[in-house]
C-alpha cells in the first residue's frame, strides 16, 4: 500500500485570483520566495472572464510528441480549444516550460520541502477551490518518472546522452 496525494479542484469556486500561480512560482524560485512569475508556476489558471469560467490546471507529465487526437470541451454552450485544460508540458505550446531553460515544469506537490504538509497552492487558495487529501492505494501501480528523470530525459534529447553523461561526470568529479 502507498499514499497518494490528491488536490481536488472545485471549478465552481475558483474566482481567477491566481494566488495559486503566484505562490507556486515564488515557492519554487531560487532563492525560495526570491521572485514571482506565473510563467514559472506549475499551476496555471485558464480564464474566460466574460463567462466567469476559471479552471486551475496543474502541470502534469512531460510528453515528447503532440497528441494524435485532441478533445474539444464545450462548457455552457461555448467550445474551448482542445489544449486549454491539458496538464502536459508538450511541444505544441509554451505552457509549463521554464522560460529560461525550456525544461518542462511539473507539479511536485511541493514535496521538495519536507516541512510543507499541505501544498502551497492549496494553502493560498482562500476560495477553497483547491483542497488536499491523501488516499491509500495498492502498491502495484506503475511508477511514474520523477521530475529529475523528466528533466534529464529532455536534456538527453537535446544534447545527446554522451554529452549529458560527460557533464554529470565533470560535476560529480
Ligand atoms: S488561488 Fe484558488 S481561487 Fe484563486 S485562481 Fe487559484 S484556484 Fe482559483
Ligand atoms: S502542489 Fe505545489 S508544485 Fe504543485 S501546483 Fe501546487 S504549489 Fe505548485
Question: What is the first-to-last residue Cα distance?
Answer: 39 Å
Helix/strand/pairing class, anyone?
alpha+beta
Unreliable residue runs: none
Beta-strand fraction estimate: 15-25%
What is CATH's topology name of the largest domain? Alpha-Beta Plaits
| CATH class division of the largest domain | Alpha Beta
- What's the Cα radius of gyration? 18 Å
Strand order in the largest sheet: 1-6
Main beta sheet: 2 strands, antiparallel
Tally of alpha and pi helices: 4
Key features of this structure:
173 residues, alpha+beta, Alpha-Beta Plaits, 2 domains, two-stranded antiparallel ribbon, 20% strand, globular, binds iron/sulfur cluster
Task: Please render the helix and strand layout as text.
Blueprint: E1 2-9, H1 19-27, E2 43-48, E3 53-58, E4 73-75, E5 78-80, H2 120-124, E6 130-137, H3 147-159, H4 161-172
Antiparallel strand pairs: 1-6, 2-3, 4-5
Helix pairs in contact: 3-4
The chain binds iron/sulfur cluster (2 copies).
One iron/sulfur cluster binds next to helix 1 and helix 2.
Concise structural overview:
With 173 residues, this protein is of the alpha+beta class. The chain has helices at residues 19-27, 120-124, 147-159, 161-172, and strands at residues 2-9, 43-48, 53-58, 73-75, 78-80, 130-137. The model has no long low-confidence stretch (mean pLDDT 88).
